[in-house]
Prior knowledge:
Mean pLDDT: 68
Order of helices and strands: EEEEHEEHEEHHEEHEEEEHHH
Largest sheet: 6 strands, mixed
CATH architecture of the largest domain: Roll
CATH superfamily of the largest domain: Phosphatidylinositol 3-kinase Catalytic Subunit, Chain A, domain 1
Distance between the termini: 70 Å
Number of domains: 3
Helix content: 25-40%
Number of strands: 14
Radius of gyration: 24 Å
Amino acid sequence: MLYIVFNGRWNAHNKYVDHEIKLLMVHKDIKFLDLVDKIHNLLNLNRNLVSINILFDVNMGTSKGMKIESDMDLEAYLIENNTKEDLRNCPLIVEVIEKNQTMALSRTTSIAATTSASNATSRKKTAASSSAYSGTNSTSSRASCMATEGGQEVQSPLTVLPSMGIEDLRVNHMFKNKEELKSALSRIAIKKHFQYKVKRSCSLTFWAKCIDENCEWYLRARSSKTSSYFRVIKYKNFHSCSLNHKSTDNRQASAKVISDCIKEKIRSVNPLPNKEDWNTPDEIKEDRIKPPEFKVKPGRPKKRRGEGIGDYAKRGRRKDSSIE
């Protein structure tokens, strides 16, 4: 059994803190390349876009530990691991490195862009040239992320997603802007019958927590000064709140969310070839009041605003139509 820590940061004393934990079962004779494959699968990483550094924390506080790069290194670690009664005293630290950057800027999946800028600065002779290079590098990284737009690879560490049709979120999911992220999160909250509140929201950050202050569920996303894209950097998808906080009367069922649902339905069935396939007025009314995929009954003002926004966005105004 291996104690894997990831998605954290190094503090000033060379201690790896604020990390997440997973356990990995391995054979005692496992080889280094097999371990790399297992860690990629465990953390849902795409090997075409990222590589990993595996470190053994020796708890000396003088460095980041011993890097494991071969079968011999791994064998030495396993021998040390077998002597420990508590697995927490012998963790394996996994750092993620993005392959699409021109320089190998090593960082964990939760370290901010400040770390990347610092590493780039150390490779330049002057502060001015270093700053320019760092900006160019950041822009090329963002452009590479944008190139994945429309892709639905769940395991991709950096995936740009639409707000519609998402079953759940993961760390490193990206959205075009904050509104797309909020729309996707609202739809997930409605489907799973929970409610959240926004703790902080600005042009660079978005932080949401469960409506119950004692619940462990939370989400954090971040953008950069050079892009409107928002990336999920922290996401604890676990609710420890009471069932009393879960109901069908959901505050996230706003007029904007309802209108998006209606637009999708109109777009998916229009035009219809046969008159017999058209929905009857009663079916349309029931479908709009209570969309079957959500089972949420919004208030009348929200419902009316949502219907109006959805119809106008797809069909335009009735008086402008040439066919009555």
